[in-house]
Amino acid sequence: MRLLLLACLRARTGNATTAARIQNHLQAAGHSCVLKDAFLYESAAEIANLTCTEEFDAALAIHLYKGGRLLQGSRIPFGIIFGGTDVNEDLKCQEKRQVMGAVLQEARFAVAFTVEMKELAAAEWPDARKKIHVQSQGIKTTPSETFDWYRFLQNADIPTDTGSVHLFLLVCGLRRVKDPLYLVEVFSEWHRKDPSVHLGIIGPAVDPLFTREVKERVKRAPGVHVLQELPQEELHAALRACCALVNTSTSEGMSAAILEAMDLDIPVLARNIPGNAAIIQHKETGLLFSSPQEFVALSKSLMNDPILEKEITARAKAYVRKHHSWEGERRTYQNLVLRLQ
């Protein structure tokens, strides 16, 4: 089967990572799967023309609004994968909600990462409940074995000659929904008292205007750094060497960075929002904070209690292996796509 896979790629967000993974799963089953950037198309008519001229048999779109709206009235069967912000944020906009409802009605199936995400969608569109499948993201980490941690720190202007360095990594695309400035002031204040702690913000400049705002704020915040984006294998290696992964998002579907840190035996400190609480059990598989001050208190308790850290990371790794199997995700998509024949 020749499949079109639509996702928002230019933003290099989690949707792009998910798309690459799904493309890999479908190609492994012998399908031809062509990945296209939804941002390059403005209307369903453009996609209809594309599916006709390139002779696609079926389509998949990631994000019910950004990708799904381009498949409205499609001549070929299609499925939808929720992105997270579609159900968590776009649902609040009446115009987008109407479009998403129409798309979901036409789709052969839909995939939600969590039960909570499915329930949000099903509450809004009860007729679609039976076609929404829950499949959590599959995780496979591939840390580079040749990654130079000390050069990485030097490039970030983090001194390596002062004894131990405790680097907290906030991995996110630089856009407002990720709220990377949430901890800047309180972390800088902590750094002034304990110069060994540093916060590194690392990820693509998704929103150029906001990226400039982040860099300007960070310039005035000792101990906080905006780091150069890394290829995935090097990012996994950096994660493996850091003190903890941090997530400050105001909204999440399912954070792949959190799951990757869990798989790499790195503790996670995440903002207590529904998307994060769905995969983190507080003080069992990670730590959830509701204020910048609570983040610092929890971080200190983690640094001062190696037994707590060891127990949390062991349980987190077991959780990922059980609930976020890469092979399980592959089987699900390979089975679901047969419904598009």
Could you describe the 3D structure shown?
The chain has 341 residues and is α/β, with parallel strands linked by helices. The protein is 42% helix and 16% strand. The strands form two sheets. Strands 2-1-3-4-5-6 form a six-stranded parallel β-sheet. The model has no long low-confidence stretch (mean pLDDT 93).
Structural class: alpha/beta
| Morphology | elongated
Biggest sheet, open or closed, and with what strands and sense?
6 strands, parallel
**Annotation field: number of helices:** 14
Uncertain stretches: none
N→C terminal distance: 8 Å
Order of helices and strands: EHEHEEHHEHEHEHEHEHEHEHEHHH
Helix amount: 40-55%
- How are strands sequenced across the largest beta sheet? 2-1-3-4-5-6
Rg over C-alpha atoms, rounded to the nearest angstrom: 21 Å
What does the average pLDDT come to? 93
Number of strands: 12
Indicate the proportion of strand residues.
15-25%
Summarize the structure.
The protein is an alpha/beta fold. The protein contains 14 helices and 12 strands.
List descriptors.
6-stranded parallel sheet, alpha/beta, 14 helices
What does the secondary structure layout of this molecule look like, with pairings?
Elements: E1 2-7, H1 14-28, E2 32-37, H2 44-53, E3 58-62, E4 78-81, H3 85-88, H4 94-106, E5 109-112, H5 115-124, E6 132-134, H6 149-155, E7 166-171, H7 184-193, E8 197-202, H8 208-219, E9 224-227, H9 232-241, E10 244-247, H10 256-263, E11 268-271, H11 274-277, E12 287-289, H12 292-303, H13 306-323, H14 326-336
Parallel strand pairs: 1-2, 1-3, 3-4, 4-5, 5-6, 7-8, 7-10, 8-9, 10-11, 11-12
